[in-house]
Amino acid sequence: MNFKVGDKVVVISGSSKGKEGKITKVFKDENKVIVEGAHIIKKHKKGNGQESGGILEIEAPIHASNVMLIDPKTKKRTRVGYTTDEKTNKKIRIAKKSGEKLD
């Protein structure tokens, strides 16, 4: 999966299409992410002795194919590429549109 917690992404399909936000959680085995402010659902919670019940609005997971990273240079959506750093020989993520290093 190309996404990490803290990445700025835009939703490209679904009910929250066009919304931007940061990734707050990544589910690698399910290939899903949670984006703050996107895909808000209502959850009914029953109250108990300590907490009151009610209808909560929470962010639900979105499939990773429905979000794209935002390029830090052009501020538009972009695909993710990989290259190796010459100094450390480590794999790094780059934005395909501008070639800018992500992270």
CATH architecture of the largest domain: Roll
Question: How many extended strands?
Answer: 10
* Count of domain modules: 2
> Which geometry do the CA atoms define?
elongated
At the first level of CATH, the class of the largest domain is Mainly Beta
Order of helices and strands: EEEEEEEEEE
Q: Helix amount, in percent?
A: under 10%
The overall pLDDT, averaged over residues, is 95
Helix vs. strand class: mainly beta
Low-confidence stretches: none
The radius of gyration is 17 Å
Largest sheet: 6 strands, antiparallel
CATH topology of the largest domain: SH3 type barrels
Instruction: Measure the end-to-end span.
Output: 15 Å
Please give the count of helices. Answer: 0
Order of strands, main sheet, comes to 6-3-2-1-7-8
What percent of residues are in strands?
A: 35-45%
Q: What does this 3D model show about the protein?
A:
- The chain is mainly β and 103 residues long.
- It has strands spanning 8-11, 20-27, 32-35, 40-45, 54-59, 62-63, 67-70, 77-78, 80-84, 91-95.
- It has two domains: 1-70, SH3 type barrels, CATH 2.30.30.30; 73-103.
- Helix content is 0%, strand content 45%.
- The strands form three sheets. Strands 6-3-2-1-7-8 form a six-stranded antiparallel sheet, with no helix packed on it. It has a two-stranded antiparallel sheet with strand order 4-5.
- The mean pLDDT is 95.
Entry summary:
Helix content is 0%, strand content 45%. It contains no helices and ten strands.
